Amino acid sequence: MKQVGIFGKRKSGKSALMYALTRQKIIQDAAFRAMEISGVTRVMLVDTVGVDVEDDSTAEKSAQSVEVALMLIADDSFELELAWISKLRRAGSSVIVVISKADKFPDGGKALAAAVKEVSGLEALCVSSQTGAGIVELDEEINRRLAEE
Ligand SMILES: Nc1nc2c(ncn2[C@@H]2O[C@H](COP(=O)(O)OP(=O)(O)OP(=O)(O)O)[C@@H](O)[C@H]2O)c(=O)[nH]1
Ligand SMILES: [Mg+2]
User: Fold this and answer.
1) The CATH classification of domain 2-148, taken from the options 3.40.50.2000, 3.40.50.300, 3.40.50.10540, 1.10.1530.10
2) N or C: which end of the chain has fewer CB within 10 A?
3) Distance 130 CA to ligand 1 centre (A)
4) What's the pLDDT tens digit per position in 86-125?
5) pTM score, two decimals?
6) Distance CA 16, CA 38 (A)
7) How far is CA 117 from CA 18, 108, 112, in A?
């Protein structure tokens, strides 16, 4: 089964995002009954320990096995995240950059996404697990990346 890993620092919102994505799937599948089984069993979402923990070997291990990786960025110090993005790509993962807890920013995370783009050239999706903003778009992007794999 294909795996989608959720990476980010401690308390960046990884587990909340996993729950929001799962809930989104369940709601969708309730509406499209025919898709129910394939939709639910098609991918495995993998929650990980923070990339900023002292012993990040379990995150390293996950990095080797996921087809698609979400890298959460929750504030404007994101050097470690950029280093992990390179690492994930070298391991063969397709990386989606996520501005996490977007509801906490007055502009919905747009300025932070622009800063990430300026430094790395990467487009980030602004997502809030709390309000649900961007969850559908993220779900669609994950599916696009999985289709490319
Ligand atoms: N405002 C806001 N708070 C959030 C959001 N997502 C998570 N949080 C809060 O941020 C804190 C950390 O969220 P978690 O989902 O546990 O983060 P985590 O990355 O799994 O944390 P660890 O597993 O401890 O590394 C909690 O207090 C959440 O309620 C969000 O989208 N918006
Ligand atoms: Mg967690």
Assistant:
1) 3.40.50.300
2) N
3) 9
4) 999 999 999 999 999 999 999 999 999 999 999 999 999 9
5) 0.92
6) 23
7) 24, 16, 9
